TrEMBL record:
It comes from Chironomus riparius. One of its GO terms (cellular component) is cytosol. It comes from the Eukaryota. This is Delta-aminolevulinic acid dehydratase. It holds the Pfam family ALAD. Its EC number is 4.2.1.24.
Amino acid sequence: MSAKNKLHSSQFHPILRKINEQNVDISFHNIMYPVFIVEDDNQQQVIPSMPSVYRFGLNKLIDHLTPLVEIGLKSILMFGVIDILPKDEIGTNADSNKNPVIRALPILRQKFPDLLIACDVCLCPYTSHGHCGIIEEDGINNEKSIERIANIALEYVRHGAHIVAPSDMMDNRIFAIKNKLIQNGMEKRCSVLSYSVKFASGFYGPFRDAAKSTPQQGDRKGYQLPPGSRGLAIRAARRDVDEGADMLMVKPGIAYLDIVRDVKNEFPEYPMFIYQVSGEYAMILHGAKAGAFDIKNILSETLISMRRAGVDCIITYFAPTILEWMKDGHL
Ligand code: PBG
């Protein structure tokens, strides 16, 4: 054996172990918290498929976020959910002035001036059919869908979103959004975070319950990537980069870390997000509750692995728990 390559035991001093873990620390800016907001300002709705996650009305959301911001929450990702306002074919209430996200934005900006606010942009929570685009007899009409998506993004930016994050997966939506922002002189106000590499995944199950966005018919395979494809993943990221995305995302998280590494290697100059989605949340939470493992162990290992794969920011429903641990110096 050559002496050169010998992994010796001094590598196992605790500080050396830390030094060997390159760039995997979790700081406050590495965590983004997804929140669901409903129309009734004073409501707090339980989501049966996602214990400890709620749909909040604006006042309840402010109450919920205030202590989190105090202990270091730096960013949120907002999802609007409606059950009083009507849903229709084109998702009119995605950007009407009654939309809960549009109403909340100026108030949250004022209440939490340092908080970074991202808005998910999609049609599925607002359409009667539950799909992410506009449907016609022969399926999704891509042109109409991206025009609609771009208008929604513009409204969110006008009302104060720092980031718009289109999750619809229609072709060329990033270009449509960027163009729309430029035409309206808004492009400097806002970054576009593309859900570039979004797989058609069973891990989204609990979310569709949370966002009330299950498709009435069919599935989303027509516009989300097949889980086995690395090639399509890179091509999707490249297309979004070419169209002007400012930041990229891989979704879901844990099962797709090789894709994160591929995309990060290909586009090292772009911030990389990962979405630890609802099914991953449920899996870890229920596993821990059943006594299969310790939640802190598993969750911090998961987060570190995401950082190791090249992630700059982790979108996670566990944000409140993680912040608590960080406050106590345990992560
Ligand atoms: C769709 C959207 C989904 C998620 C975020 N945006 C669901 C889907 O594509 O079916 C999933 C998030 C999660 O599972 O936590 N607009």
